[in-house]
Every structure is written in structure tokens, then in C-alpha cells.
């Protein structure tokens, strides 16, 4: 379980393929604090640390993960948002994030608002019931608040701290991002669906 509050930005240093899997070596400021078998959210995707050779560590993404996220488009040099799993004693500053990405979204526009940034994203219509005005949304592992919600688009406002301390500063129009919708909303939609049947 995660909170969507990014701890560090890592960088992909090496990518290798093994069958349908991809293995990534990533450098990060917090590598010395990590342990093998720990769960770390990478752009919101929960992956297990397999090996550590400071300042690098290794993770692997299987076909299912590559198909549903933007990990398949990572290149050597890509910047990755990182968050370690939630401790029972931690404050929940964002919202409950599972690290199980629902789909990818597309960056439609980035607007510099002279002190903040406004970013608009497009997402698949099938997920429309899972996002609401002023509701929580996890984008590349970052807990954010959606506004201007339409059937297949929404916007988020980015404060300077988040811009400077995440990989949103490298985002370009047309880039894919990982989206995880609020877990509570998923349970509500599931309950409604079962009541209808």
C-alpha cells in the first residue's frame, strides 16, 4: 500500500528483455536504504526489488504489467517517480494507492499558470465512472486531485514543489502516464453492479 507522495526520482540505467519480461536497473538517491524483496512503486506500479548494486537496483516487469502500464515505453535515461510502501505508523498525506495501475492516460496539454501548472489528461471511456470532480487520482504514482472532469478527460493542478520533485517536469504532450483510480470508487461501482444483477 502506498500514499501517492513521491519520495525520490530515479533514472533507468539499463534495460534487458527476458522472454516477455523486461528487467530494469535503476539508480536512485534512496538505493542505500532499500532491501531485496521490498515493494517499491515505480510511476505508481508496484515492483519487487530483486538485486541491489548501489547506487543501482534491479526490478522486473512481466507481460501483464507491460501491457497495462507505460513501463514498456521506458528508455535508458527515463525518469521514474519512486515511493516505498506505507509504514503502519506513517501519516497518510495523499490517499490509499495500491500500486496496481488500472490503465494509461494521454497527456493532452500542459499549461504554465505562472506559479503552478495545469495538465489535462485523456483516458479510456470505460473508466469514466471511476473519476469524479475533486476526487483523488494517482498519476505516475502521484496522489493528485482531479477537476474539470469530462467523460474522457480531466485536469490536475500541480504546485511548484510537486513539479520540481517528480517526473512531471519531464512530461510532454502526447506522453503516456499510468493511472490508478480511487480504490473506494472501485468498490462502490462493483457493489452497484452486483446489486443490478
Automatic annotation (TrEMBL):
| Residue ranges annotated for the Lumazine-binding domain, each copy included | 1-95, 96-192
Reactions listed under catalytic activity: 2 6,7-dimethyl-8-(1-D-ribityl)lumazine + H(+) = 5-amino-6-(D-ribitylamino)uracil + riboflavin
Report which superkingdom the organism of origin falls in: Bacteria
SUPFAM superfamilies attached here?
Answer: Riboflavin synthase domain-like (SSF63380)
> What enzyme category does the UniProt record give?
transferase
Q: Does the keyword Glycosyltransferase apply?
A: no
Specify whether Transmembrane helix is a keyword of the entry: no
Q: Which Pfam families does the UniProt record give?
A: Lum_binding (PF00677)
**Which terms does the UniProt entry file under GO BP?**
riboflavin biosynthetic process
Gene3D superfamilies hit by this protein? 2.40.30.20
Instruction: Provide the residue intervals of the Lumazine-binding repeats.
Output: 1-95, 96-192
Please list the GO terms describing molecular function.
riboflavin synthase activity
**Keywords linked to the UniProt accession:** Repeat, Riboflavin biosynthesis, Transferase
Give, as in the UniProt entry, the pathway in which the protein acts.
Cofactor biosynthesis; riboflavin biosynthesis; riboflavin from 2-hydroxy-3-oxobutyl phosphate and 5-amino-6-(D-ribitylamino)uracil: step 2/2
Its Enzyme Commission number? 2.5.1.9
Q: What does this protein do?
A: Catalyzes the dismutation of two molecules of 6,7-dimethyl-8-ribityllumazine, resulting in the formation of riboflavin and 5-amino-6-(D-ribitylamino)uracil.
The name under which this protein is listed is: Riboflavin synthase
Organism from which the protein derives: Paraflavisolibacter caeni
Amino acid at each position: 500500500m502506498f500514499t501517492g507522495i513521491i519520495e525520490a526520482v530515479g533514472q533507468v540505467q539499463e534495460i534487458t528483455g527476458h522472454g516477455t519480461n523486461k528487467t530494469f536497473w535503476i539508480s536512485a538517491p534512496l538505493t542505500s536504504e532499500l532491501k531485496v524483496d521490498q515493494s517499491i512503486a515505480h510511476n505508481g506500479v508496484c515492483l519487487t526489488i530483486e538485486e541491489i548494486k548501489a547506487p543501482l537496483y534491479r526490478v522486473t516487469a512481466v507481460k501483464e504489467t507491460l501491457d497495462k502500464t507505460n513501463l514498456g515505453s521506458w528508455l535508458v535515461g527515463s525518469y521514474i517517480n519512486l515511493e516505498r510502501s506505507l509504514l503502519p505508523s506513517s501519516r497518510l498525506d495523499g490517499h490509499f494507492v495500491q500500486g496496481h495501475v488500472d490503465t494509461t492516460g494521454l497527456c493532452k496539454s500542459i499549461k504554465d499558470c505562472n506559479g503552478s501548472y495545469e495538465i489535462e489528461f485523456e483516458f479510456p471511456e470505460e473508466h469514466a465512472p471511476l473519476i469524479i470532480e475533486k476526487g483523488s487520482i494517482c498519476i505516475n504514482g502521484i496522489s493528485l486531485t482531479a477537476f474539470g472532469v469530462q467523460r474522457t478527460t480531466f485536469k490536475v493542478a500541480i504546485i511548484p514543489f510537486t513539479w520540481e520533485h517528480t517526473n512531471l517536469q519531464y512530461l510532454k504532450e502526447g506522453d503516456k502516464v499510468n493511472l490508478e483510480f480511487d480504490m473506494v470508487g472501485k468498490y462502490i461501482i462493483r457493489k452497484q453492479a452486483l446489486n443490478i444483477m
